[in-house]
């Protein structure tokens, strides 16, 4: 697969603005992968996830003769290993951040396919642990036993869900959607995802931005250049009340009885955590 490496002008502007605003008073962190070399890779690949040809393949597919077979009930995660300082316990300040990634979700042909992928933020200690029985609509993020119990989970996720399950806003198979999840598989806000209206194998681009002042997490998913298909969704979330001070970030994906590929072609992340100026 060819790796897509689009120019990120909006992200560059966002990062430059934050740098000017916080350059003397911020703790900053960033990384950027235009493609994923297999070694060394500061990303943990868990479950069925692998790096192949410079791309992260989150769920399993095998070459069988002349055909590629996408496997059912496959779950995989790719987690950036360095912990991220999300908020400061002494000042109470929360980080601003932006992450962008390009991805391909390909059904392999069938009209019905599943189940989806997610960008997630979770505690350092649990980020590498895939819950048991979390294939299919659980997206490798939640176990069936606690998927809808916020007191039993600690994760914020942006899901690109290609199959409408009974707990989704539109419980119909073709109701693909982008959702924001807070400690539960039942999204707090969603919008439609046009995965079934773009050509097979299309590169999508997702942007996730958190503004600590407004506490707004905003998500944009787009296909194509100017005039292409773009959807967006946002939600007010006080991350300090939901997640611990230090977190890990990554991707999770799953297939169930229905299948599709879940590939990450590029990924960047930048955060700024305001700190008191030294006297």
Automatic annotation (TrEMBL):
The keyword Signal applies. Residues 29-272 form the Legume lectin domain. InterPro entries: ConA-like_dom_sf, L-lectin, Lectin_LegA_CS, Lectin_legB_Mn/Ca_BS, Legume_lectin_dom, Leguminous_Lectin. One of its GO terms (molecular function) is carbohydrate binding. PROSITE patterns: LECTIN_LEGUME_ALPHA, LECTIN_LEGUME_BETA. The keyword Signal applies. Residues 1-26 form the signal peptide. It holds the Pfam family Lectin_legB. It comes from the Eukaryota. Keywords: Lectin, Signal. PANTHER family: CONCANAVALIN A-LIKE LECTIN FAMILY PROTEIN, LEGUME LECTIN DOMAIN-CONTAINING PROTEIN. Belongs to the leguminous lectin family. This is Legume lectin domain-containing protein. It comes from Acacia crassicarpa.
């Amino acid at each position: 697969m060819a790796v897509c490496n689009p120019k990120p002008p909006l992200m560059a502007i966002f990062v430059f603005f934050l740098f000017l605003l916080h350059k003397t008073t911020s703790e900053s962190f960033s990384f950027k992968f235009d493609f994923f070399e297999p070694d060394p890779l500061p990303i943990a690949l868990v479950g069925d996830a692998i790096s192949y040809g410079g791309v992260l393949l989150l769920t399993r597919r095998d070459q069988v003769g002349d055909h590629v077979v996408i496997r059912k009930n496959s779950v995989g995660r790719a987690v950036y290993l360095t912990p991220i300082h999300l908020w400061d316990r002494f000042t109470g300040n929360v980080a601003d951040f932006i992450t962008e990634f390009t991805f391909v979700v390909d059904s392999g042909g069938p009209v019905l396919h599943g189940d989806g992928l997610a960008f997630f933020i979770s505690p350092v200690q649990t980020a590498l642990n895939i819950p048991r029985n979390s294939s299919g609509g659980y997206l490798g993020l939640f176990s069936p036993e606690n998927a809808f119990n916020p007191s039993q989970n600690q994760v914020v996720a942006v899901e690109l869900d290609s199959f409408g399950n009974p707990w989704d806003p539109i419980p119909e198979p073709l109701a693909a959607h982008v959702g924001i999840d807070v400690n539960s598989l039942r999204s707090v806000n969603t919008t439609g995802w046009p995965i079934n209206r773009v050509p097979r194998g299309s590169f999508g681009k997702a942007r996730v931005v958190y503004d600590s002042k407004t506490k707004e997490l905003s998500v944009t998913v787009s296909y194509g250049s100017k005039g292409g298909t773009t959807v967006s969704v946002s939600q007010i979330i006080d991350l300090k009340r939901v997640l611990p001070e230090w977190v890990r970030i990554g991707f999770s994906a799953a297939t169930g009885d229905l299948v599709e590929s879940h590939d990450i072609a590029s990924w960047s992340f930048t955060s700024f955590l305001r700190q008191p100026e030294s006297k």
